[in-house]
From TrEMBL:
Source organism (scientific name): Brachionus calyciflorus
Region (Disordered): 507-546
Name of the protein described by the UniProt record: HAT C-terminal dimerisation domain-containing protein
Taxonomic classification: Eukaryota, Metazoa, Spiralia, Gnathifera, Rotifera
Claim: Repressor is one of the keywords in the record: no
Main location: nucleus
UniProt-listed SUPFAM superfamilies: Hermes dimerisation domain, Ribonuclease H-like
Amino acid sequence: MSSIQPEKNQKRKRYSKRSWVWQFITENGNFAEYNICNEVMKYESSTSALIWHLEEKHKINSGGLCYNKKIKLALLSESDEDDENCNEINESSCSKKKITSLNNKLIDFVVANNLPVSLVKNVEFKSLMKEAVSSYTLPCRQTISNNLIPEKYELTKQKLLLELRDINYVNLTCDCWTSNSNNPYMSVTAHFVNSNYQFVIADSGSNIKSALSKRKCYVPCAAHKLNLVVTDVLSEKKIKIKSDKNGIDHYFVKEYDSYGDLKQMEISYEEAKRLENVNIFKTSVDDVVKKARKLVGAFKHSCVLTRNLKEKQDIMDYETKIRLIQDVVTRWNSTYDMIESIVLNKEALMSMSFEAANSCIRDKVQNHGEFAIMEEFCMVFEKIKDLTEILSGRNYCTISIIFPAIYCLVEYELNSLELCTFEMKKLRNELVNVLRGRFGYVLNSDFFIAITLLNIKYKKFTFVKDLNLRNEYIMRAKNFIIENFNDILPNSQQTFNTTPLLPIENLTPATTSSSASSSSSVSVSNNESQQLTQNETPISVKQKRSRSIKMISKRKENFLDKISDGHELNQNLSIESSLEQELFTFLENGPKLVKFNYNSNEDEDLSLKFFRENSEILPVLSKIAKILLSIPATSVPSESAFSIAGDIQSEQRSRFNPQLLNYLQFIKYNSF
């Protein structure tokens, strides 16, 4: 009786992996790569070492928050090897892993492109998927809405929680919005700098009341404040008159307190008369703007005028050929664009007004005096518009640019403009006063001064011409950092009393005195003082009105680039103690620090890049920088979250389930 011997070359049956660790790890031959930290570890058969790494390094275990057996979608992207294996499956059937991968990609496709879930019912889309993967059956609309999207939401949330687990400090922005179906929504975004010194924004979806009840410091939205500044300047200030029982008149007007908030305040009779004169020239400027709207409206409603303007631009050989732009009354920057478009077409419009074929615009085209007002209007508000565009960035704009920007606008940039018209001179003075009022919380706060110190472009405050005042700002910034962030130091190095980070209204106000303590301020030699005074002060240059140049440069060249620290002297340093020593090394640009081109226009934040490269030399200051430089200057991230929600819930999807909208918006904001 012969016995059947097993074949020597018979392959051992390979079972599918059942361990929970593989949702965080990608296998690559005999190596396992962690998708969380990208660390590679040798792997043979046992998962004990892999589990130990997840538990010890990332605090993840089988019973933890991140392990959910109901989740069927892949948490992280599959490896190339997995994709190759999936492509070699039997055409008659689709493996479970392949179905999971395709479902995941389908949800990504729907969310990223704001597509309706009913796409899976589209005949052409079904035909496309049948041709691409014949063995794959598309899930129905109910499966996507009730199962796949909620699962993807949970996975995205858990991945975000993993990243937030090691973050000790976050900064929040919030905003409210009403959808097309009249459902109210609230957005909360968290901002922090991760271990790689990269700025991260996440839509937390937290409860706003509980989030703000634990706040340490509240910072108003700078972009909204800037918009209010222009609104205040261009609108008439109303004066209320109240008579007491003795028949004496009292004058009241809305003015700013020391924190930039409008309050009803009593003013004198002389001040009331001055405001009445200010309202008169505001009315004259408003008349010019209204006339400009009528001119643009005539072109918008006439194809003949638009064609004639284009022909006139060709005849006059215009380098910048743009059409007239219609403004939106509620947005002042669109009014600026409208006036700028008229100024750029000044010669063409004046030439057209004398032609019989264009007689309908003869009384709408501005005269020489009105054109002069419009040109100087663009000069005055150009820097405000540039700053508005800078502050509108979602991923790069931090609070560290607010103090130098507002300080230079108030002290140098606006006052250096050469204006000829009486109306615009008055308007410029009013703009400076309103900026001082609305942004008093910035100019009078050690909090903003300290954050400016951590920006390597402005850390020496060379945009301040007065050397004594410059040294005072540096001293106040150093004291603020030491007093409020001493808890970051190791216990053995703490030498100062720890105090919590106070709200802005409780911070030390700025003094008008230019004297400073020589013992606490940064030492500057006489030769260096002369050099800084002559070569490193803000310069105001009258810019040419050329829209094409700005479009090419994307407005990267602005007045903020001119006020950054030019070059700094290297000095031999003496070591004293902990945070004070690090501040001294940072300010005096110690020889061991990695140097950067401060005038570079790279997309990456230079300050974060600097502290990442010098984190070993400046360990404590780098931690402080990760906290302060992650504070956003505006609430634009929350507003952009609502823009995403508005794209998802269109007029055709007005009956969208609010919970499903929340899922889709959260996935898109945190994944794409």
